[in-house]
TrEMBL record:
Gene3D superfamilies per record: P-loop containing nucleotide triphosphate hydrolases
Stored CDD domains: ABC_NikE_OppD_transporters
Keywords: ATP-binding, Cell membrane, Membrane, Nucleotide-binding, Transport
Protein name listed in UniProt: ABC transporter ATP-binding protein
Location(s) in or outside the cell: Cell inner membrane
All copies of domain ABC transporter, residue ranges: 4-254
GO CC, any one term: plasma membrane
GO molecular function: ATP binding; ATP hydrolysis activity
The organism of origin for this protein: Devosia litorisediminis
Pfam families: ABC_tran
Lineage of source species: Bacteria, Pseudomonadati, Pseudomonadota, Alphaproteobacteria, Hyphomicrobiales
Coiled coil: none
Length: 281
């Protein structure tokens, strides 16, 4: 049984211009101890699909699926109270732009301890000690001192580490990382990716990595889903994807890598109708 299994997921938004379909009938599955990359350019529906799993889309969104199960539990029919017991504990998500995702009005210690109190029942000294342990685990050595810091007093890389600490606080079975290295410099990007993969291996989590960076895919993923304008274009193990892509959109993405530059000009992904790989819905 897959850790997470989704069949025929669609997400539409009611806008002033009419109904907009951001995700159109995709299937997604991930197993424990597996790293799945969902890749595609901005606007391809990668984040929206995973926010649907988390139940974090606005009221203007309509989510439908033939199946959305976590460890065999139906997330679509589950009541809100039962779903809250899973989301944030067994399924956790690291969001884009960590400085914006953290609450600027509360210290990072408060925000980590809030997660521990809500899902693990830890309070007082026990929560504080666990928060320090988590900060040290994600590479913030002066965790005890940092508990009293506000997000604006920390660098982007440190805030991202705090977000990771919050996400893994309850030892989730599935971790979703949405563009976890956005707006970080190259050195910090490498550190964050190495940290996520090491935590995934150490804790045996399933990891979904949302990215537009094919280099991140090559470095971290076991299996890859390629999306374009809400559609799944291709799904393959990472080696097959790079060596023998089946979708012309995947080939276009790979051709746009920096190493394929001709002179001073990079190839571009033109806006034309792409066909999914054979057998992909």
């Amino acid at each position: 049984m897959a850790l997470l299994e989704i069949k025929n997921l669609s997400v539409s938004f009611d806008t002033s211009a009419g109904l907009f379909k951001a995700v159109d009938g995709i299937d997604v599955s991930v197993d424990a101890r597996e790293v799945l990359a969902i890749v595609g350019e901005s606007g391809s529906g990668k984040s929206v699909a995973m926010l649907a799993v988390m139940g974090l889309l606005p009221s203007t969104a309509t989510v439908t699926a033939d199946k959305m199960e976590f460890e065999g539990l139906d997330l679509l029919s589950m009541n809100a109270a039962d779903k809250r017991k899973i989301i944030g504990k067994d399924i956790a998500m690291i969001f884009q732009e960590p400085v914006a995702s953290l609450n600027p009005c509360f210290t990072v210690g408060f925000q980590i301890e809030e997660v521990l109190g809500m899902h693990m029942g830890l309070n007082g000294k026990a929560a504080r000690d666990r928060a320090v342990e988590l900060l040290q685990l994600v590479g913030i050595s002066d965790g005890a001192e940092r508990l009293g810091a506000f997000p604006h007093q920390m660098s982007g890389g440190q805030c991202q580490r705090v977000m990771i600490a919050m996400a893994i606080a309850c030892n989730p079975k599935l971790l979703i990382a949405d563009e976890p290295t956005t707006a970080l410099d190259v050195t910090i990007q490498k550190q964050i990716l190495d940290l996520l993969v090491s935590l995934q291996v150490e804790h045996g989590m399933g990891l979904i990595m949302i990215t537009h960076d094919m280099g991140v895919v090559a470095e971290t993923a076991d299996r890859v889903i390629v999306q374009y304008k809400g559609h799944k274009m291709e799904e393959a193990d990472v080696l097959s994807l790079f060596e023998n892509p089946q979708s012309n959109y995947t080939r276009a993405l790979l051709s746009a890598l920096p190493e394929n530059a001709v002179g001073d000009r990079l190839p571009t992904v033109s806006d034309f109708v792409f066909e999914p790989a054979p057998g992909v819905n």
